[in-house]
Amino acid sequence: MDLKSSAMSHAAATIVIFGLLFLQAAECRNVKKIKDGVTYSAIKCRKHSALLTDFGAVGDGKTLNTKAFKAAVDHLSKSASKAGAQLIVPPGKWLTGSFNLTSHFTLFLHKDAIILGTQDESEWPILPVLPSYGRGRDAPDGRFSSLIFGTNLTDVIITGNNGTIDGQGAPWWDKFHKGLLNVTRPYLIEIMYSNHIQISNLTLINSPSWHVHPIYSSHITIQGITILAPVDVPNTDGINPDSCSQLRIEDCYIVSGDDCIAVKSGWDQYGIKVGMPTEHVVIRRLTCISPKSATVALGSEMSGGIRDVRVEDVTAINTESSIRIKTAVGRGAYVKDIYARRVTLKTMKYVFWMTGAYGSHPNNDFDPNALPVIQNINFKEFVAENVIIPAQLDGIANDPFKGICMSNVSISLSANPSKLLWNCTGIEGITSNVTPKACDLLLQQQKPVDCAFPEDKLAIEGFNLTTCFAGIA
Questions:
Q1: pLDDT for the residue 471
Q2: Is the pTM higher than 0.90?
Q3: Which segments of the chain have a pLDDT < 70?
C-alpha cells in the first residue's frame, strides 16, 4: 500500500500539513546551512570526517553499499578514539544491508540522502534472541540485526538535516502476514548495552518492524524524528525504549500501525531474571497518529519494571488511545510513578485504557504467581474530543491497580459513543474535575485535587548539546 495514501486515509490533509510545518520548524532550530556544509546540534563534535563515497559507495538506489558502509565505519573507528569521527552520507539513494556503528562516532545524513534497506535477507545477519525476551517477537528462534546496529558503545550520534532512512518494509510485512518468517523481523535502528546516544533530525519510514529500539542502555536523547509507516501494518512501532534509563524523547512526529512510543523492559520470566527496568524517561512535544494503537504504551513487556515516566505537551489525532498500560499475570515487576499532563486528543476510541489481561506470553513457562504492581498513575490536564469510550480500566481481580489520579480532564463524546462510558474493574483511585463523571471506583473528590507531576529535572534534561559542523562539499 502507498504510504501517503494509507496515512491520508486515516488523517485529514490538514494534519499532514501541520506535521510538515512542525518538521520544518524543528529543522530550522537544529540545522543551519553554511558554505560547503551545515552545522548541527550534537552531544559531541568530531575531529575526523569522511564521505561515504570515499569508500566506493554508489548512490543510485541499485548498487549494494553494505561493504562501503562497513569499510567506512572500520576506517573511522581507528581515529574515533582520538577526538571522534563522523561519516557523512551525501545526497543520493544508498542501498545497504545491516551495518554496525562504533564508539565516539557520528553518522550524518544530508537532507537529500536516503539510506535504503535492502530486501536481500542474506544482507541482514541473524542475532541471538534478547535475554530479557527469551524468544523472538515474530518467531521463537533468532532475530535479524537492525539496519543500523551497535552494541557496547559509548558516545554515538545518528543525525542529519532531515535525511531519510527507508526500511523498504513491504516484503517483510507480507512474509509476516503469510507466516513465512523463521526469525524476527529487523528494526531500523537498534543500540544495545550502550550509553550517551543521540538520534535526531531524521525521517524514518517503512521499517520492517519497530523503527527505533534502544535496549539495555542509558543517557539517550531522541529529538526531531519523523516516523512514517502505513497505519494498517502491525508492529511498526515508532520509538521503543527497552530496559533503559535516562531518556529524553522530544519534538517527534509519528504515524504508525502500532504504538507511537512503547516503553518496555522484558517479557515474563526472562524479563524478571534480567531485572533491568526502564526508568527516568521524559516524553514531550510528541504528535501521534495511530488508529489501531496507543500514543504512549507502557508494556506489555514490562517484567523488568517501568517507573518515573513523564509525558507532557502531547497531541494525538485519530489514535486508538492516549497512554495505555498493558500487562498480565506472569509479567511480575511494576509500572509505577507515571505522570502525564497537557495532553490534547482528537478523534479517539479511548482516552484512558489499562488492562491486566493482555496475555501474549513467550511460552507457557511463566509463573502464574508473578503479579504486576501498577500504582501511582497520574493524569491531568487532558482535553479530548470526538471520543467513543472515555475509559476502559481493567485491573487484575486479586491484584488491583492502585493510586490512579485524574484531574482537570474534559472529554467530549462522538456522535455514537459507547453506552458504558467508564468501564472499570480491579482499580482504585480518585478524580477531580473530570467530565463526563468517572466510574465509582475512581472516587470523585469534593475539594479540588491536582494530580502529581514532578517539578525536578532528570539528569538527561541537563545534558546540553553543542554546535558541530558537517562538511558536504
A1: 76
A2: yes
A3: 1-36, 472-473
The C-alpha cell 479540588 sits at 448
Q: Which three cell numbers stand for residue 449?
A: 485535587
How confident is the model at residue 472, as a pLDDT?
A: 56
Type of residue found at 340: A
Straight-line distance from the first to the last Cα atom of the chain, in angstroms, rounded to the nearest whole number: 37
* CA gap 45, 47 in Å, rounded: 7
95 and 65 Cβ atoms separated by less than 8 Å: yes
pLDDT of residue 160: 96
- Tallying the residues shown for the chain, one arrives at 473
Given the residues 237, 258, 259, 308, the one annotated as active site: 258
Helix ranges restricted to H, 35-144: 66-80
CA nearest to 106, candidates 473, 470, 467, 463: 470
Give the closest residue to 305 by CA, choosing from 339, 341, 280: 280
Residue type present at position 54: D
258 is catalytic: yes
DSSP 8-state class, residue 118: -
Residues 310, 315, 316: CA angle, nearest 5 degrees = 110
